[in-house]
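The authors assume throughout that readers already know how a fold can be written as discrete tokens. For illustration, here is how one protein appears when written out as sequence plus structure tokens:
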Amino acid sequence: MTTPPTPPPKVEVLPAHECWTYLRGETVGRLGVTVDGTPQVFPINYVVDHGSLVFRTAPGTKLTALLSGRPVALETDGVAADTGDAWSVMATATAEPIERIEDVLDSAALELFPWQEGQKDHFIRLVVGEVSGRRFAVAPKSAWSNEADAPRAASE
């Protein structure tokens, strides 16, 4: 008699308000932009500000791509040590430079601390169009290893 296969782990689709809760709880994400028709990903430090995401950057490839008007994406994720649940949230957005002096001063007052030193005088607001997210239990390492495959894998 064969054992029935184990059902796949449950993946929970997160409602928008939970996605925003996770975004507020983090400060580091990966920003996806298009550079010369090629996707590029950059780590950024961000804060949530009035339903948008704000970060600082220096002149360069990332800033040029952001100012092109093409859509961008920000992804962040994590694992809850107490439950073993992982989550991942993605926001699609358009990027707007923050240029009015009042807005720059407001943004400068946000607790926004880039990891890398240097002059990061350009404040960018990501105006989020859509957020989506997933939560799931992290699979144990044993779920991905099969002792029967070990000799074959070692000989390959």
Notes: The longest helix spans residues 16-25. Helices lie at 16-25, 61-66, 101-108, 150-155.
